[in-house]
């Protein structure tokens, strides 16, 4: 008579009152028994299969060795799409037997007679196996095409070097099919850049069949001329149970429907890449749908003093170019002005219609001397791909008037006319007395009189201050309130009307009307120095309000841009800005007399 104890990790047993005692007996028998030698084996669930039909490879080992097989040769012929493990320990007549199995679900990579090479497990190797893989029947291929297919399309068939081309990939899947892999389109030319712009999922009907569609849009930039081919996008999906062979994974569960594999490959699209046109005269080739130069930060209305920094921000905006393609700002400044440039700020915004990018150059100008300076115009030649001709983006030349800086003078005495070095001296024969002709007595007397007058006024001011502090010793610590009438008080009715026009323009999605309403509102808030364009208006606003203004400006200058400029609560943003300014002004009204 012998004892037989089977421990299976995959099938848990019900607990019994004597389970602790049985556990102790199992441990004791494991310690006393001697392990058997390791043995390995391999078997297939079937000796023949189709190209898109999975097959199971079962690897078994008896012994105490770890089951870490080398699958590198196997993966060259098959794709491993699933794996599961199982382990059991048996003790018969005091001898322990440990069994482990690894089940691999394989998809053949090619048709024909495939030899599964010996697989090394520890110090042992399995025997080689042979599997016959047949081509998929044409009927199955046609049926698959009716349920899954991939389409590629381009928005144009010809383009220039570095021009943006939109590639659209659409994957159509019948309901119940799950995508497992979808390749990225690969261009035939190595020097080609592709950027994912947009991805969306929706339902669509084609030939009376409802499909789940995955749509992706790419921006393609080719950097050499010739014929560019894009295709060969491969897809694999499946339908059925998540378990490819649920019956073998769990022998006590009823078999489920076998998984069906779907494969598809896209069509090929061709694109002719043309060289740079001979009639382009610019230094840098810039093919774009739109390109412009805008400026922000330079206020010509405010007096500029010599020696004081003047910040100038120039931004290049483009549709159809990456930020790396945008040129730097080149300008020639007149003598007497020093230039300090910061690192440019680059930004890219992908949309369904392409890439919109910007490059902002911030620079500090310092005029060493007063006078009028002419800053030359900035021009960037570019190629309009929609009209197929050269255009020039231009920032007009401006003149700045630099005022003398009193704080930069060397002293009060240098501001006065210095005495002339040309003096006439009369020397008498007897005494040698010298009399200066350039210092009349009347002028000297006038200067002394002015000094006496300012000195007396200064003494009287000090006496008045001392007397006012003498009556109330705590008065020095009381702040002096600023009268409300001295603060800016724009017409509230006009402000309200301007806000109504602004909200109406946003509701009607009328960008030109919104621009006019913004400038009217700005004119009421800054009557002495109103901003004359949206760029300067945005520079005076806080971040949230500035983003709304910039969004409108971008829409006006880039009609093809799909930026949603109407998605802002304008009145709420303005009220928040005004509340913040009132809070700041209340803190500024309390000006201490004796800080």
Automatic annotation (TrEMBL):
The keyword Methyltransferase is annotated on this UniProt entry: no
Domain of life: Bacteria
Domain spans labelled DUF7939: 497-580
TM region positions: 449-467
InterPro entries, per the entry: BatD (IPR025738), DUF7939 (IPR057699)
Sorted UniProt keywords: Membrane, Transmembrane, Transmembrane helix
Pfam families on file: BatD, DUF7939
Transmembrane helix in keyword set: yes
Chain segments carrying region Disordered: 576-595
Protein name: DUF7939 domain-containing protein
């Amino acid at each position: 008579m012998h004892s037989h104890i089977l421990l299976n990790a995959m099938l848990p047993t019900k607990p019994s009152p004597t389970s602790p005692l049985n556990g102790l007996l199992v441990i004791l028998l494991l310690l006393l028994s001697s392990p058997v030698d390791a043995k390995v084996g391999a078997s297939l669930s079937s000796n023949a299969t189709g190209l898109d039909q999975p097959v199971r490879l079962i690897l078994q080992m008896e012994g105490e060795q770890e089951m870490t097989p080398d699958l590198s040769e196997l993966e060259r012929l098959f794709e491993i799409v699933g794996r599961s493990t199982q382990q059991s320990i048996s003790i018969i007549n005091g001898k322990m037997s440990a069994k482990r199995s690894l089940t691999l679900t394989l998809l053949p990579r090619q048709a024909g007679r495939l030899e599964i090479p010996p697989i090394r497990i520890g110090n042992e190797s399995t025997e080689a196996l042979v599997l016959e893989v047949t081509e998929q029947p044409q009927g199955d291929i046609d049926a698959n095409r009716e349920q899954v297919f991939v389409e590629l399309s381009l928005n144009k068939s010809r383009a220039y070097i570095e021009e943006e081309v939109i590639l659209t990939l659409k994957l159509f899947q019948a309901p119940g099919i799950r995508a497992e892999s979808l390749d990225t389109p690969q261009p035939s030319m190595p020097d080609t850049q592709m950027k994912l712009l947009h991805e969306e999922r929706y339902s669509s009907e084609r030939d009376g069949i409802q499909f789940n569609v995955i749509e992706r849009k790419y921006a393609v930039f080719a950097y050499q001329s010739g014929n560019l081919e894009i295709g060969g996008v491969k897809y694999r999906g499946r339908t059925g149970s998540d378990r490819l062979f649920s019956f073998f994974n769990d022998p006590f569960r009823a078999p489920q429907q076998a998984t069906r594999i779907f494969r598809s490959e896209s069509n090929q699209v061709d694109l002719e890449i043309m060289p740079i046109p001979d009639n382009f005269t610019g230094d840098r080739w810039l093919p774009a749908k739109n390109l412009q130069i805008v400026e922000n930060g330079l206020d010509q209305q405010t007096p500029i003093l010599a020696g004081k920094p003047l910040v100038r921000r120039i931004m290049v905006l483009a549709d159809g170019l990456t930020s790396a393609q945008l040129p730097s700002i080149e300008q020639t400044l007149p003598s007497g002005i020093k230039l300090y440039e910061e690192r440019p700020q680059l930004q890219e915004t992908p949309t369904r219609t392409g890439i919109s990018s910007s490059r902002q150059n911030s620079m500090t100008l310092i005029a060493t001397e007063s006078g009028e300076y002419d800053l030359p115009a900035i021009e960037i030649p570019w190629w309009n791909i929609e009209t197929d001709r050269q255009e020039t983006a231009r920032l007009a030349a401006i003149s700045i008037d630099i005022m003398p800086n009193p704080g930069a003078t060397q002293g009060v005495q240098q501001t006065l006319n210095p005495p002339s070095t040309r003096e006439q001296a009369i020397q008498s024969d007897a005494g040698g007395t010298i009399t200066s002709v350039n210092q009349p007595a009347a002028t000297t007397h006038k200067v002394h009189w002015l000094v006496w007058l300012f000195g007396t006024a200064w003494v009287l001011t000090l006496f008045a201050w001392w007397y006012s502090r003498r009556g109330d010793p705590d008065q020095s610590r009381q702040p002096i309130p600023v009268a409300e009438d001295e603060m800016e008080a724009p017409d509230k009715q006009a402000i309200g009307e301007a806000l109504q026009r602004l909200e109406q323009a946003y509701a009607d999605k009328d960008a030109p009307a919104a621009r006019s309403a913004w400038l009217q509102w700005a004119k009421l808030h800054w009557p002495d120095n109103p901003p004359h364009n949206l760029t300067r208006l945005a520079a005076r606003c806080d971040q949230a309000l500035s983003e709304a203004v910039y969004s409108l400006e971008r829409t006006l200058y880039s009609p093809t841009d799909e930026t949603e400029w109407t998605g802002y609560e304008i009145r709420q943003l303005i009220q928040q800005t005004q509340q913040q300014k009132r809070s700041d002004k209340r803190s500024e009204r309390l000006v201490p007399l004796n800080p």
